[in-house]
Amino acid sequence: MTLHRAVNLPSYERCPASPGVSGTGLALARDEAHPTSDEALPIFGTFVLGAALVNRFRSAIGAIRVVVVEASTHRAWSASCWDSPYEPATMHVDEDDPYFERRTVGGWFNVDLYAIAPELPRTAKRVLAYAFVGELVSNVVDIRIGAGP
After folding, report:
1. Assigned domain for 107 exists
2. I need a surface site. Which of 2, 40, 99, 113 has the fewest CB within 10 A?
């Protein structure tokens, strides 16, 4: 586990950098500071999934994939946002629930892109990242490494 500006990486809790989601969706945010190649490369995610999507997977958090693209070469890596030796909690919403269509499950993830994509070169100057689960795709986050403000 890495401590990055008072946020443990990986962690699965809301932090000051966690993006908001309106309705159901998936959103990512980058650290506002410009990281150097010697530091963690954090990404902060928020998800709110509808019950039908939750029931398609054994674990919603375990099904979320983060894609990292080195901008100069277009080389891409994909990994689960669940970065733990333990199994993620299973989730299920009762389909007989009269409010099934309105039920949602939400949470957060904070991960180090260098940890989930260890082949990502630390010499990269620009990285693009997004996340997806099922048909939901997050925004794309543009991270400039070692760039000034």
Report:
1. yes
2. 99
Q: What is the arithmetic mean of pLDDT over 9-30?
A: 93
**pTM of the entire structure?**
0.89
Q: Is residue 44 part of a domain?
A: yes
Domain total in the chain: 1
User: Which residue, among 45, 54, 123, has the nearest Cα to 79 in the 3D structure?
Assistant: 45
By the 10 Å C-beta count (0-12 exposed, 13-18 middle, 19+ buried), 67 is classed as middle
Q: Record the tokens describing residue 49, joined without a space.
A: 């999934």
Q: Give the domain extent around 88.
A: 2-144
Q: What is the mean pLDDT of the chain?
A: 88
**Cis-peptide, bond into residue 35, ω within 30° of zero:** no
> Residues of the chain with pLDDT > 70: what percent?
91
**Is 19 within the bounds of a domain?**
yes
The token pair at 148 is: 């000034």
In a domain, 63, yes or no: yes
Is residue 3 scored above 60 in pLDDT? no
pLDDT tens digits, 58-86: 888 889 999 999 999 999 999 998 887 88
8: domain CATH number? 2.60.40
